[in-house]
Design a protein that fits this description.
The protein has one domain. 86% of the residues lie in helices and 0% in strands. The chain has six helices and no strands.
């Protein structure tokens, strides 16, 4: 019995590779491009030139000074991506035929099931609020000027 349960788990995991890659690859391209652009902008700032002039190693300048300041706008994007992940799951689950909340909400919208559609929109709204809360907490971690009190 334990072997068959493990076999079912492996089968499920194998079939989740393509949908997971779809959800990940859709958002990571834009995030990488935004990170690169922001990092190039930060590397031209005066305080980076000052840190290099003081004799800090290039890895310390990039990892400590530049990347920390690059993370501030990226935290904003990541906070907003939480509801986008579930909205993308609606499309991904419909394409791959998985019976998740996205698949159920798609069929509820097609069938005109107003209560479930309202639940799904409320769920996405709660995820938006949760994403904003997580982003606000991460601001305090990333930016030392921001303090939660």
């Amino acid at each position: 019995m334990a072997g068959s349960q493990f076999g079912k788990f492996l089968d499920r995991a194998e079939h989740m590779i393509m949908p997971a890659l779809t959800l990940i690859l859709l958002g990571i391209g834009g995030l990488m491009r935004y990170t690169r652009t922001n990092m190039l902008e930060v590397l031209n700032a005066d305080y980076i030139r000052t840190a290099r002039a003081k004799g800090l190693s290039e890895s310390k300048v990039i990892n400590y000074h530049a990347f920390r300041n690059t993370l501030i706008p990226i935290v904003t994007i990541l906070g907003g991506s939480l509801p986008g992940l579930f909205s993308g799951a609606l499309i991904t689950e419909t394409i791959f035929g998985f019976r998740g909340i996205g698949y159920a909400s798609y069929h509820a919208m097609v069938a005109g099931d107003i209560p479930f559609t309202m639940f799904y929109l409320m769920f996405i709204s709660c995820l938006t609020l949760l994403g904003n809360l997580i982003a606000d907490i991460l601001y305090a971690v990333v930016d030392p000027r921001v303090r939660l009190s």
